Amino acid sequence: MNFFKKKRKVDEEHKEDTKEIQPASKKSRLVSIVKSVGENIRSKVTVALNALTGRSYTHRIPSALFTTPAGPLRSARYVMTPLDHFSVKKAALKWRKNPYYLYDSVIPVTESKQHEFKTGGGKYPINILPKHVQKYGCAFLNSDGGVLMAGILDNGRVCGIFCPDRMRREVVNSIDKEFSYFLPKVPSNFYRIEFVPVYERSKAVQLKDLFVLELTVSSGHEDEIYETGEHKVFIRREGSIQGPLNPLQIKDIVLSKYKKKIERRRIEKLQEVNETETDVDTEKKKNTNKVTSPKRSLNKEVIIVSP
């Protein structure tokens, strides 16, 4: 019995000691937790400001906002879209001022409705380019036109494609051949093939047989729908290709073109009516403004002299 009493006393004393010590440990833990949370919030706020005010979001900024399950401080593995708004001047077909590209530089345009970038590595000019001519050439003709640029990465960085003289002739022949299969016929002045040389960025020396292939395609006739030699129809959306279209989609395009044509004719007739009305009004004003001057009667006086 005495053994159990002694054990109870020891347990009670131990509980009292832990009660006295426990609040102090809780306070210290709470202070440390508050400090650590405050530092995390501060870092998150700074990262948020850097991400929102900066032009891009790279791996150098720790990813506190864009976290992954692996951990809150994992670095970002991607690049955010630049804050530069899309401008019509940059989207124009003739945006390039210099007759060359600089290797590993970033061009001032992004992929859009008028621009399509392709890396073009390996045997792209011979094996893959003809299929892209069918797809993107048809889409540009059925839309507002555009440029297919081979030798440009998706982020706009210039890498170029290796294309010696013999291969360039084969590329031109294959592009002409693919466009010759289109229906209706595509005139040669509707597209332009250009091999733009690539220069080294530091020494400003042209790199041998390294080019950026630019295939510029203008928009086709408004009353036509162009199809490839395989009877496939494509159209260009914002930065993407839609197609091959099914018959119902082609029917919708035909109806929209027909409605636009009717609206255009209606506007032309209204303009003609307005022009005829203005011509009639001007003639009436001229007739009313004419002032008829009164005829003057010349009375000659005859003087008779008597002898």
From TrEMBL:
Transmembrane segments: none annotated. Residues 1-23, 274-295 are annotated as: Disordered. It comes from the Eukaryota. Residues 111-241 form the Schlafen AlbA-2 domain. Residues 9-20 have a biased composition (Basic and acidic residues). It holds the Pfam family SLFN_AlbA_2. This is Schlafen-like protein 1. It comes from Acropora cervicornis.
